[in-house]
Design a protein that fits this description.
By secondary structure, this protein is α+β, with helices and mostly antiparallel strands. It contains two helices and five strands; from the N terminus they run E-H-E-E-H-E-E.
């Protein structure tokens, strides 16, 4: 499913493309690894930031304690998400419990002036 909450705001094209690729990679991970019956993408436009979540009801996994452990655990897709988040100045949160699914959250504060665009 896909849900939009709040009033949609356009971002610069490079930022929009990077966020699109992050959601795409998250959904690819669901398809490849999660064995999920459901996936949901939610974009929440707040007054100061955009939060995008990708949630599934799949098998979940143990999230490494540090992002530097992602390559050691062969989580290269998640490492790519972290690198893209860093490039945007966004916060990436990965929450997962084995047997209970995964939630990927991308939180991006609007750049100066973006909060006024429609």
């Amino acid at each position: 499913t896909f849900t939009i909450r709040g009033k949609e705001k356009r971002l610069d094209p490079q930022t929009e493309m990077t966020l699109y690729r992050m959601v795409q990679e998250s959904l690819n991970n669901v398809m490849r690894h999660a064995r999920a019956g459901r996936a949901a993408v939610t974009a929440t436009y707040g007054p100061d930031s955009l939060e995008i979540t990708v949630e599934d009801n799949g098998v979940g996994f143990d999230v490494p304690a540090s992002m530097t452990d992602l390559p050691v655990k062969n989580h290269f897709g998640l490492l790519g998400l972290q690198e893209r988040a860093d490039l945007l100045g966004a916060v990436l949160e990965i929450r997962s419990i084995p047997g209970e699914g995964t939630v990927i959250s991308i939180i991006l504060a609007y750049a100066s002036g973006e909060d006024e665009q429609a």
